[in-house]
Amino acid sequence: MGWATRFMAAVAFLAVGVVFAPDSLVSSSGGPHSPDSALATTAKLAHLLCFATSFGAALWVTFIGGIIMFKHLPRHQFGNLQGKMFPAYFSLVSVCAAICVAAFAYLHPWKSASSLERYQLGFLLSSLGFDLSNLLVFTPMTIEMMKKRHKIERDLSIGDEVGWSKNVEVAKKNPNLKAMNKKFGMIHGFSSLANIMSFGCLAMHSWYLAGKMQL
Fold first, then answer.
1. What does pTM read for this prediction?
2. Average pLDDT over residues 164-187
3. How far does Cα 95 stand from its chain's mean position?
4. Average per-residue pLDDT for the chain
5. Which of 14, 28, 164, 178 has its Cα between 20 and 30 A from that of 49?
6. How is residue 37 annotated by DSSP?
């Protein structure tokens, strides 16, 4: 099943959902910012879907997918895969975070928003900032540093193994590899920290959303 087919299937399921909840399309007389207006419902849908996509992607990449790949793939293969996946991942979560910010700001204009709602907008803006810092700064630097380290490791005939054992052992005797490990670790650490901070902001916002839901 191609990408376009999957997208159309998702749209079709969304349309079925609208059919089973036709009242959501009926505009109220309270204006476009009214909680019951069709435009407000659309903004809520965009916010919810983008939040869920961003939170779910961050949860999988950070705590599940990346760890499984690292434990089972040769290290250079794992790094090259991450180098292709991370730009796409941070592009996705950045777009989702931007839509969340826009939708939430529309639903809760700053002048009329409560202090709690302003805090939530701050969390979303922070998440967007951390995602953009990774997309535009830390990820490109990490990938560039990874490629330089891979070159040093290939010259030393390591990198096809699973795990860090050979790298750590060889780095004790090779100052170039040791220095590159230090630089890579620092940049990768900043990237990981930004990713965790973004996920934390989304987690804090999830508590707010849970309090607003009626199940």
1. 0.87
2. 91
3. 9
4. 90
5. 28
6. S
